[in-house]
Design brief:
Protein-Tyrosine Phosphatase, Chain A, 6 strands, alpha/beta, disordered C terminus
Length: 190
């Protein structure tokens, strides 16, 4: 259930069965790292295709690993296999938009997911992209269905420190429409 302040954020979900998600959005480094610390994150997995940000300079792949290390956390880049804009041109539809079901069928994506799930079994993991709202981001639209198939829960750490479960997102009509076409079960049901 979503809560209204970081001070009241729920306890971290169990380590081996869940993965946290976070968007760096326009956070300052101080607010971003405090969100990670509150959830006891050990490894931040960057799933941006291009790991740079004009709005959050700390989120550059040149800076972020050092900052996380100073806080006792590790950084891992998997944007090449789990990013929302793969280099493989066959992963796009006729309009040039990423085709998430097609991406999920690719070997590079499956290998990245296996690596992510293995890591989540060993450490407290958060995957990071730029978008604060998971319902508008590939971390839920692309990775979410693949994690669900592997019985791995996703918990979205929102900008205000509240935790939002993927089931809650799926229950909202706007997010359900956003998922349309990315998950075979929804395509068949509607």
């Amino acid at each position: 259930m979503r809560q209204s302040s970081p001070d009241r954020a729920s306890a971290p979900p169990p380590m081996s069965t869940s993965i946290l998600t976070i968007g760096h959005s326009n956070h300052t480094w101080e607010s971003f790292v405090s969100l990670l610390k509150a959830q006891e994150v050990e490894v931040l997995v960057d799933i941006r295709t291009e790991p740079v940000s004009k709005h959050a300079p700390f989120a550059s792949s040149r800076t972020l690993p050092r900052l996380l290390e100073l806080e006792g956390m590790r950084y891992l880049f998997l944007g090449d296999s789990l990013g929302g804009k793969p280099a493989d041109r066959s992963c796009y539809d006729h309009r040039g938009k990423p085709d998430y079901p097609k991406i999920r069928s690719k070997g590079f994506f499956k290998a990245g997911m296996e690596q992510l799930i293995r890591l989540a079994a060993e450490a407290r993991v958060a995957i990071m992209c730029a978008e604060e709202d998971p319902g508008k981001c590939h971390r839920w639209l692309l990775l979410g269905p693949a994690l669900e198939q592997g019985d791995v829960a996703m918990h979205h750490l929102r900008g205000d420190g509240a935790m939002q479960d993927s089931r809650e997102l799926r229950s909202k009509p706007a997010y359900r429409r956003q998922l349309q076409g990315t998950l075979p079960l929804l395509d068949q049901a509607e």
